[in-house]
Amino acid sequence: MDFFLCVVGMILIFEGLPYFAMPDKMRTMVQKLFEMPDKSLRGFGFVMMLTGLFLVYLGKR
């Protein structure tokens, strides 16, 4: 459970860093996300999941 909490904490740090460092640019990026078609967002999400799975595989190896 300790490892899981550390991983969640690291994810929150990496997710929050762009909003802290450049809030104006992040606002613009989020607005552009609303304009993207669902198919593009699903493709991006799929690539992110595969990348995460690969990184977990490398970490457990």
Fold and architecture overview:
By secondary structure, the chain is mostly helical. It has one domain. It is built from three helices and no strands. It has helices at 2-21, 23-35, 38-60. Helix 1 (2-21) crosses helix 2 (23-35). The protein is flat. The model has no long low-confidence stretch (mean pLDDT 93).
Average pLDDT works out at 93
Structural class by sheet pairing and helices:
mainly alpha
What Rg do the Cα atoms give? 15 Å
Portion of residues within helices: over 70%
Number of helices: 3
Q: Would you report the number of β strands?
A: 0
Indicate the proportion of strand residues: under 5%
Summarize it:
The protein has 61 residues and is mainly α. It has helices at residues 2-21, 23-35, 38-60.
Characteristics of this structure?
61 residues, 0% strand, mainly alpha
Secondary-structure topology with pairs:
Blueprint: H1 2-21, H2 23-35, H3 38-60
